[in-house]
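Workshop exercise sheet. Pairs work together: one partner reads the sequence aloud, the other fills in the structure field after running the prediction. Swap roles for the next sheet.
Pair: D.N. / O.F.
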Amino acid sequence: MILPIYLYGHPILRKGTKDISPDYPHLKELLANMFETMYKAEGVGFAAPQVGLSDRIVVVDLSSLAKDYPECEGFKRVFINARILEKSDETTVLEEGCLSVPDIHEKISRSNWVRLQYLDEHLQPHEDVFEGYPARCIQHEYDHLEGIVFTDHASGLRKQMISSKLNRIRDGRVNCSYKVKK
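Structure field:
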């Protein structure tokens, strides 16, 4: 089922999230719906707050980026109750966008690698290091779990330059090709 995507300005995107318990209701169905919603909107990563849930759940499928980023080949993951344990000091600047902030793309600096502790879709624990584009995507989605939107990382000047676009999104004056919640 396609879920509505919550847009910039909605309070849920600024709220921190909580861990889910092993008896979380309908988890398998929610994950399937999140993937379906993300694919329909042509995204590659998606966090629960973007569908109105204050839960520490992220889905990622970077396979469509494998031509430009070979490390993305077959990279489809679920991250539940994720915690970044460590990040590299070295960073890379790349352009990012977000389904909750349509029509805005900004160059954002992110750590080159992250060490992440998480549960998979079967609630099995993992601790892995992710590098390159997967690390970038994980940091972007992790930010959603912490109530941070990617434009928060833009420079002061860029924030001023995009403020009117952000205000239009916040006021519901944006057209999206996917189902949204304003």
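Discussion prompt: The longest helix spans residues 156-170. What would you look at next?
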